[in-house]
Amino acid sequence: MIDYKTEIAKLLLQNTNLSLEEINNLIEIPPQENLGDYSFPCFRLAKVFKKNPASIAQEIQTELSENLPEWLNKIDVAGPYLNFYLDHGAFATNLLQEIFANKENFGHDNIGKDKNVIVEYSSPNIAKPFHVGHAFTTILGQAIANIYEALGYHVIRMNHLGDYGTQFGKLIVAWRLWGDELALKEKPITELTRVYVKFHSELENQPELEDEAREAFKKLENKETEEVELWQKFKEMSLVEFNRLYDRINVHFDNYNGESFYSDMIPEVVSLLKEKNLLEESEGAQVVDLSEFNLNPCLILKSDGTTIYASRDLAAILYRDRTYDYYRNIYVVGLPQTNHFQQVFAVLKKAEFPKADQNKHVGFGTVKFKEGEFSTRKGNIILLEDLLDQSVAKTKEIITNNNPEMSQADIADTAEKVGLAAVSYTYLRNSRERDIFFDWDEILDFEGDTAPYLMYTYARAKSILQKSEFTELSLDEIDFSLLNSDEEFSLLKELYQYPNALKLAAEEYEPSILLRNISQIARTFNRYYHNVPILKTSDIDLKHARLALLKAVSIVMQNGLNLAGIQTVERM
Questions:
Q1: How far is residue 150's CA from residue 147's CA, in Å, rounded to a whole number?
Q2: Which class is domain 385-563?
Q3: % of the chain at pLDDT higher than 70
Q4: Which of 440, 416, 405, 414 is nearest to 426 (CA)?
């Protein structure tokens, strides 16, 4: 696909005495469409040529206008600015040929060739319910992994299960005191949550439970049989529940190594830090001083010798480097863990680990409802499955009312896809660091910034194509250059931005950037659909060209939504 900004920079190269990069950095998008598609200010050239910028602009315009490339319609001067106007027909032809040549791979790139990127996401705690907070990391992480994969990176999707730590000592003690075997078989997560919540409610009256829990975890770390068997049982039951949910939302992983996997590697971490003279004793514990980074000391081993998150994460990084030789190691974990990752990465830096700067914490906000915060300890959580069921049920009601002739099977299938998409889009549509407030009227609005709106737009484009009996077999005979109106150019420009939005989404770890582009395509298309006749166009060649434009819109929208983990539907 032609990079018009770079091509314009190349045209200016011989007239400016600036480098290609400098020119590229100076080229702007004008604030108004009537001022052209790209603009170059000549202020920087005044000192070089000892002339005023307006005169320089006029001279360059005169020289360049003698031999314009086919994709450039004209160059105008506005004071010190050179304004470049693209040829609408050539723009349409070049872009649509690119889209139809690549189809589902349009916008993809090979910039990540031979580079391994690890994306760690979801990572729920074993024996705890999968709630709406876990959905944020799960849906966001999957989208980021998909985006990197589309850019040619080899992506390793890791689910770093929370299957270790003092909470398992608490769970083991709680199970032994109050566990019900029959209830565990019927609803394992529900029963384990019940005893875990009871443990915390009983602490005030029985503070000795805390010591018993620490002792139980120490036995687990020492691999004592009874504790290990209980832990294994809780883990297996939890994974059955988690995988059922992952299948429903089409999320998958390449690796399920939890915290426990790295436990045996802690001695190597301790040894490495000792070799570097970085370990210090503090109240019986082993820490790394990070004052030079303006951070608190990083705890590596507790006073009783047990491990902690930081030591296990350090071990995991050493393992990942050896196993995958990663280019980037991305942690999709909530913002409250920012300090933890700052400490871990600072320890790596201080230990002179070569890839200390190739680890990235991608933080995100919290999920809120009108009812307020939720907590496993308090027992007032909102399960993801309940949220999905509610979204699907509400969507089914809307689709049934709008499509009374639709079969029950089609309604159920469409409602499932749209309902799940509505939830996913709510997590992804805004900057990831913003908190999410669930409002059903808002997230299921078919006219708002929602998944139903985007999916309905896609279905509308597909419906028009179906009515027209349009097929891709006729593409070679279509004159794309007929798409030269301002309305068509506006829509084509949004499609043109898709590859750049994809790259920027990867650079910023922000799927919202990609989805904003898809949303803009949808809104521009809907304006086009209302203002420009398509099927009723009397000119058959123009009609075919406009149908090809609709086909391109459907391809790009589907590509972007797929990367966000949203399945499109043909009818709504």
A1: 5
A2: mainly alpha
A3: 98
A4: 440
Portions of the chain given CATH number 3.30.1360.70? 4-86
The CATH classification number of 4-86 equals: 3.30.1360.70
Distance CA 243, CA 251 (A): 9
Structure letter (DSSP) for residue 203:
T
Report the CATH architecture of 116-368: 3-Layer(aba) Sandwich (3.40)
Give CA–CA dist 558/563, Å, rounded: 9
Instruction: Dump pLDDT digits (tens) for 536-558.
Output: 888 999 999 999 999 999 999 99
Element spanning 317, H or E: helix 309-324
3-state secondary structure of 359: strand
Average pLDDT over residues 287-292: 96
Radius of gyration of the chain (CA): 29
Is the separation of the CB atoms in 25 and 32 below 8 Å? no
Residues with catalytic roles: 128, 131, 134
d(CA 221, CA 215): 10
Q: Of 174, 120, 143, nearest to 332 (Cα)?
A: 120
- Asked if 147 and 512 count as a contact pair (C-beta separation under 8 A), the reply is no
Q: Are strands 285-288 and 279-282 parallel, antiparallel or unpaired?
A: antiparallel
* Rounded Cα–Cα distance for residues 381 and 133 (Å): 9
The pTM score is: 0.91
H or E segment at 443?
helix 440-443
